[in-house]
Amino acid sequence: MTELRPVTIPDDDLVASQRLRRAIHETLRRSLHVRHLDAGSCNGCDWEIAALLNPYHDVQRLGIDFVASPRHADLLLVTGIMTRNLEEAARRTYEAMPEPRLVVAVGACAISGGVFAGTYAGRAGISEVLPVDVFVPGCPPRPEALIHGLLVAVGRMAPFAFVSYGESDGNSTTSSPPWLKRGT
């Protein structure tokens, strides 16, 4: 019979996850609620978004939840080209979200229309219809890139200072989170 050993999380990953949880809490005072909107994708990006909920990535442990209603969402995660048939529904979904609200474009199709840009049925990216805050490139983008995009979006939403990340000069109790550092 094999001996069962407890699974240990590497210290770097544990510290990073604690920082993310703290940043989300300081920014939103609760968890981040995400509404996914498929605006006409091939489902490649959707599979990668679904991977965020598996035991390996498990973004729910970080305080990120996917919700069914835009009225409960802080962030709209959009995949696919913006088809002309979904433009009005996308606008209504965005307008139903409470302020402050963010939009993240996921994948090449959502950013620029991808290989479908210029066709009769779609737009050249969702930015023609919705105000996009963060672009996550890739076809499809990996789950790690999606997590990074969510971190960038949370940083843009911050209405006040973040807790210290240990990078300050010792005189300050707050500093910018690592993903908001400019020019590094």
Any descriptors?
alpha/beta; 184 residues; single chain; 5 helices; Rossmann fold; five-stranded parallel beta sheet; disordered C terminus
Structure description:
The protein is α/β, with parallel strands linked by helices and 184 residues long. Helix content is 31%, strand content 12%. It has a single domain, classed as Rossmann fold (3-Layer(aba) Sandwich).
Produce a short descriptive summary.
By secondary structure, the protein is of the alpha/beta class.
Count of the separate structural domains? 1
Number of strands: 5
Distance between the termini: 51 Å
Considering DSSP H and I runs of 4 or more, what fraction of the residues is helical?
A: 25-40%
What's the gyration radius in Å? 18 Å
Our estimate of the beta-strand percent is: 5-15%
Q: Mean pLDDT, as a whole number? A: 78
Strand order of the largest sheet: 2-1-3-4-5
CATH fold description: Rossmann fold
Low-confidence stretches: 158-184
| Total count of helical runs of at least 4 residues | 5
How would you describe the shape? Answer: globular
Sheet/helix structural class: alpha/beta
Oligomeric form: single chain
Per CATH, the class reads Alpha Beta
SSE series: HEHEEHEHEH
- Tell me about the largest β-sheet: 5 strands, parallel
Assigned CATH architecture: 3-Layer(aba) Sandwich
